[in-house]
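Weekly puzzle thread! Below is a chain. First person to post its structure in token form gets bragging rights.
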Amino acid sequence: MPPLSVLFNGGLVVYLAGAAAGLAGFGNARRARIGAFGLALAGALVQTVTAVVALANGVDATWSLPFGIELFTWTIRVNALSAYFNLAAGILGTAVSIYSLGYLREMEGRRNVGVLGFFYNFLLLSLVLVFTAANAFFFLLVWEVMAVSAYCLVSFEHEKVETRRAGMVFLIMSHAGTGLLLIAFLILAQASGSLDFSSFHLLASKLPPAQQGAVFILFFLGFGVKAGIIPIHIWLPAAHPAAPSNVSALMSGIVIKTGIYGMALVFFDFFGVPPVWAGMLVLGIGVVSALLGVLYALMEQDLKRLLAYSTIENVGIILIGFGAALVFRAPGTFHARGHRTHRGTLSRDQPRYFQVPPVPRRWFGAARDAYTQHGGDGRVDPPHAGNGVLFPDRRNRDFRVAAA
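Winning reply:
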């Protein structure tokens, strides 16, 4: 089997070929559809194989693409985290590409399918690079490529007012999130003297408390915009109904997960042991997003908006897991702190709270009667005991048969 870097780079080349095929078939919609989405299918299959090989062999490999300059290198790192998300992107990209070959057939002659195929391939290409970028400059570059490609796909039916509005809201919020990420990366780069993610490993936890908190909030909000967490989720219910169905599937299935990937990278790589409040913040936002997401979904009549709110709910559930993981990684752990507090309080107040009041003598007679009535084994039957279905009559040690 070819080396991992050859497989990975080959998948990128196939995506670029798919984008070129979309433009080459500008005057022939059928040729553009088959060429662009057929090559997108091939690229997704290659990236799926790459991710499976990386996960099966426990690979942690780093190499540079033959682009960029010495200061801003285009460094790729494939490890367990990036391979996992790339596997998800490959599987979903395969399924959506197959669906698109039939879905877009009826658009031929009415829409520019070649342009859709161009940006579709660039979106898949940028997703792969977001999950594997090992340099802050390169990461932000492909992050913006992903945002612009997604904007063009969401705005594909641009003659509709609501589509243009949804695309503009998505683009504005995406750029706002990128600005927050840029500030956070600059703080870490100033502390480490490098833009490589390897130099950021556990660095955020070594910053002064004020900078540490600022970096955490900036990353959380910057990636939270893309993940669609409440209350910065407003682009999501607007963009999903506006986009074509195949684009909506990609947006909900994997574009949203780039925010989750970024949070996982920051929470568990850039930070060592985070402050307790950070975990509680993520946990609280996760609970709110999950609850409100499902409530909004229950009230929706439009299927695409319903799926958008369902996505928000599931992102909230993921954040609950992240928040719990952060809380229990905190110094002393959250449980130890809670145990110390409540145990110390109970021990201190034991003379006042643990004095057992005297039991009236008549209670003993009632207890003795109940003991005798229910078979002498000290257990009390439920009110519907002995119905011949669920509960035995323990006085006779067998099951009663219900009367016909």
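Puzzle host: Confirmed. Bonus trivia for everyone else. Confidence is low (pLDDT under 50) at residues 332-356, 374-404.
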